[in-house]
């Protein structure tokens, strides 16, 4: 009960933050009826997916300061569990998704235990390596379709199918994902005020001090890594039903891992709103720059240049991301 | 004066009523929108440019009466059965990303309201895009993706004009068999032991991994040993370890399935490591792009590639020569396997629309299932286009065929592709064994 109270308690945020969050929530709830195009809807779904990925990454990467660049492996575990169970045994999404989370968390314990003996860049490189190794294994594992991947055939289901999460219209996917998104925000709100959340921030500031205070640093990192993994795995399962085709090259690529970390870092790692802001900037920017400048104006590739430029500028101006800029401005105003 | 005023008011009234009754678009020229999804950026951007140029040229010919071209679609300006409606292509760039491809397909179908889709070159993207088209009941014609399972899914809104890798790979083994039997032009019978060991490296998406399977399957059937079968990540920055591994297998035949940037890097690495082998064969894609030839120049003399179109075809087939001349004028290059098939894909769309005489999806579906385009209408050397409507492969063109070309240096010093298979249309003696690096 206490945990639920904490999850729903946002009173430590300034009123302006809550007003903006409330307006964003109203906009999201009303989005499908505002008459936006289907491309905008697809972009919004990507935004929600990457916000959730980022929220997960933010627990270990933001609050814990452990830069994890291997989250794609858990996207893959979630996506493949759902796809395999759906295609081979016709098991509904709502059963396969928790199974995927269990498998992903299990795997995160197996690799997290040795990995968290490493620190800093070594840890980041090790996460990349484990992710790529798992991707390589999936590429030769025939049970999961090897490099050819798996396809959830659209002709075998009769949409709307809420059990298997197979829909023709994106609006269903949108609201289901929005539900996960809100749950994610409440969970992270609880997490940041939990004992583990405080322990992690202490570990991020100084591991030796944290250890001297009696915190089991290694175990705290492993537990948080598993929490981050659960978020990513849930969205991975959703991705399988949404795209209906998964391949290791697409689902478990290094690009996905880097994008997840990038969104959170650009928005502001270690803050509740950071990953959402990061995804809110980068996802529409990437989609629309490409659409307007690439496809319409004919400046093919210009979107990538502008995208990179914005990332470089924000990183150079304020390494703590957009949320860091906001906090800096607030401090300046107070002084 | 009163009479003139009355007449003027009557005419104005009539115009107003007509304006209200007749929708504004009805008097405008009718347009048929085809969404075209290709990789216009990323590692396969070169192929994307070629595909786009091929499709655009076909649309130009369909929209303008060109009496100099012996094609039925060039006789009329627009689709005759639809009152001269013009084809409008809406291009989208999928970057080789299946998820983005699916999003773009939704945009084309729901926002741009296209009448049909053409694409997507990458088999992995074709897979997700065709699934979206199938869900929405929008016809999709694919001209360039060769992964066999694409037409084995029982889809009712998907048709593929190009032959697929099962048959392309079989052609390769027929060529190897021909080499051992002395059937290849300019080459005496080769001992099978010189060719029996095979090493393959294919990029590991839908297309490459299926090619790898096909190689293993046909090798078994034709009695060859696959000593090394490797999948590598597309757009790799370095292929040294892959090539070292291939070299260690001491193969008589090396087979590749690579997109442009990988194909160039692969041959550069083979050269750097001085790999020795008798036959090097590429499964089209990167191996037959102008960039491949222009970058590697003399190093590629003797390399084989499967394709569906070579400039030599333009000399043998009148209509191919006519279209090739237009394409060369537009791009500066000859038609290649990708551009010729993109052209044929859009040409098939034109024929289907002409037959359907409607843009209703069900009418288009019926017309596509019944279509027959004779071979002499096509730039590619096929017997024609006719889609299977039953059996294991639904929507597959059953009249397609492939060619195998070899890079050779002409008397003018230019490097071009000569036909070496099928044996009866060979345009030059085959260079065997491969000149070592």
Account of the protein in words:
The complex is a heterodimer of chains A (335) and B (437). With 335 residues, chain A is mainly alpha-helical. Chain A is 75% helix and 1% strand. Chain A has a two-stranded antiparallel ribbon. Chain A is globular, with a radius of gyration of 20 Å. Chain B is of the alpha/beta class. In chain B, the strands form three sheets. A seven-stranded mixed β-sheet of chain B has the order 7-6-8-9-10-13-14, with helices on both faces. Chain B has a five-stranded parallel β-sheet with strand order 2-1-3-4-5, sandwiched between helices. Chain B has a two-stranded antiparallel ribbon with strand order 11-12. About 2% of the residues of chain B have low confidence. Chain B is built from 13 helices and 14 strands. At the A-B interface, α3, α11 and α13 of A face β2, α3, α4 and α6 of B.
Q: Which descriptors would you attach to this protein?
A:
heterodimer; A: 335 residues; mainly alpha; ABC transporter involved in vitamin B12 uptake, BtuC; two-stranded antiparallel ribbon; 15 helices; 2 strands; 1% strand; globular; B: 437 residues; alpha/beta; Rossmann fold; 2 domains; seven-stranded mixed sheet
Computed structural class of chain B:
alpha/beta
- In CATH terms, what is the fold-level topology of the largest domain in chain B? Rossmann fold
Strand element count of chain B: 14
- The CATH homologous superfamily name of the largest domain in chain B equals Response regulator
Gross morphology of chain A: globular
Question: What is the subunit arrangement here?
Answer: heterodimer
Give the H and E element order of chain A. HHHHHHEHHHHEHHHHH
Strand adjacency order, main sheet of chain A: 1-2
Rg of Cα set of chain A: 20 Å
Helix content of chain A: over 70%
């Amino acid at each position: 009960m206490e945990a639920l109270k904490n999850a729903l308690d946002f009173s430590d945020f300034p009123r302006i933050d809550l007003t903006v969050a409330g307006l964003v929530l109203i906009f999201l709830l009303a989005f499908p009826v505002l008459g936006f195009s289907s491309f905008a809807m697809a972009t919004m779904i990507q935004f929600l997916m990457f916000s959730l990925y980022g929220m997960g990454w933010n627990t270990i990467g933001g609050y814990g300061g452990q830069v994890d660049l291997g989250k794609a492996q858990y996207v893959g575990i979630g996506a493949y569990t759902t796809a395999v169970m759906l295609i081979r045994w016709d098991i509904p999404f709502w059963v396969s998704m928790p199974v995927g989370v269990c498998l992903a968390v299990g795997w995160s314990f197996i690799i997290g235990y040795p990995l968290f003996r490493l620190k800093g860049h070594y840890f980041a490189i090790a996460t990349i390596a484990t992710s790529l190794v798992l991707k390589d294994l999936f590429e030769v594992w025939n049970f999961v379709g090897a490099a050819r991947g798996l396809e959830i055939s659209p002709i075998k289901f009769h949409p709307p199918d809420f059990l298997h999460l197979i829909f023709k219209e994106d609006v269903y996917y949108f609201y289901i994902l929005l539900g996960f998104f809100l749950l994610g925000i409440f969970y992270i709100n609880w997490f940041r005020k939990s004992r583990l959340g405080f322990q992690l921030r202490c570990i991020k500031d100084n591991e030796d001090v944290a250890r001297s205070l009696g915190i089991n640093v290694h175990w705290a990192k492993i537990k948080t890594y598993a929490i981050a993994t659960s978020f990513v795995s849930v969205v991975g399962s959703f991705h399988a039903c949404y795209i209906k085709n998964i391949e290791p090259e697409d689902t478990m690529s290094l690009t996905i891992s880097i994008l997840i970390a990038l969104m959170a870092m650009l928005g502001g790692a270690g803050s509740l709103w950071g990953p959402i802001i990061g995804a809110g900037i980068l996802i529409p920017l990437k989609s629309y720059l490409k659409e307007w400048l690439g496809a319409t104006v004919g400046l093919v590739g210009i979107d990538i240049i502008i995208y990179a430029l914005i990332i470089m500028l924000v990183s150079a101006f304020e390494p703590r991301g957009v949320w860091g800029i906001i906090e800096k401005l607030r401090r300046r105003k107070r002084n | 004066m009163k009479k003139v005023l009355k007449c003027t008011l009557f005419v104005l009234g009539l115009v107003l009523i007509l304006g209200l009754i007749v929708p504004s678009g009805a008097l405008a020229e009718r347009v048929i929108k085809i969404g075209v999804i290709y990789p216009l950026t990323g590692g396969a951007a070169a192929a994307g440019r070629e595909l786009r140029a091929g499709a655009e040229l076909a649309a130009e010919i369909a929209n303008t009466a060109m009496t100099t071209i012996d094609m039925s679609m060039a006789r009329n300006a627009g689709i005759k059965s639809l009152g001269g409606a013009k084809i409008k292509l809406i291009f989208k760039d999928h970057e080789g990303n299946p998820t983005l491809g699916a999003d773009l397909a939704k945009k084309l179908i729901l926002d741009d309201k296209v009448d049909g889709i053409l694409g997507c070159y990458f088999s992995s993207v074709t897979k997700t895009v065709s699934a979206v088209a199938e869900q929405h009941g929008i016809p999709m014609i694919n001209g360039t993706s060769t992964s066999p399972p694409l037409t084995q899914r029982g889809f009712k809104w998907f048709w593929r004009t190009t032959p697929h890798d099962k048959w392309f790979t079989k052609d390769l083994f027929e060529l190897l068999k021909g080499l051992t039997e002395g059937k290849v032009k300019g080459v005496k019978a080769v001992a099978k032991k010189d060719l029996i060991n095979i090493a393959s490296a294919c990029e590991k998406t839908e297309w490459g991994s299926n090619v790898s399977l096909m190689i293993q399957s046909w090798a078994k059937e034709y009695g060859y040993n696959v000593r090394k079968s490797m999948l590598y990540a597309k757009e790799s920055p370095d292929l040294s370890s892959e090539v070292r591994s291939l070299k260690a297998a001491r193969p008589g035949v090396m087979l590749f399935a690579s997109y442009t940037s990988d194909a160039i890097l692969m041959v550069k690495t083979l050269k750097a490591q001085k790999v020795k082998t008798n036959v090097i064969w590429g499964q089209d894609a990167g191996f037959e792009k102008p960039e491949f030839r222009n970058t590697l120049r003399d190093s590629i003399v003797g390399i084989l590639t499967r394709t569906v179109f070579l400039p030599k075809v333009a000399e043998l087939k009148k209509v191919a020569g006519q279209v090739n001349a237009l394409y060369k004028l537009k791009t500066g290059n000859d038609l290649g396997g990708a551009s010729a098939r993109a052209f044929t894909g859009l040409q098939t769309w034109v024929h289907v629309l002409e037959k359907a005489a409607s843009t209703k999806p069900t009418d288009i579906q019926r017309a596509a299932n019944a279509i027959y385009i004779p071979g002499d209408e096509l730039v590619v050397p096929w017997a024609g286009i006719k889609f299977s409507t039953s059996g294991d492969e639904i929507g597959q063109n059953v009249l397609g065929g492939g060619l195998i070309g070899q890079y050779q240096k002409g008397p003018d010093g230019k490097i071009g592709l000569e036909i070496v298979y099928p044996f009866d249309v060979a345009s030059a003696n085959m260079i065997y064994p491969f000149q070592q690096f």
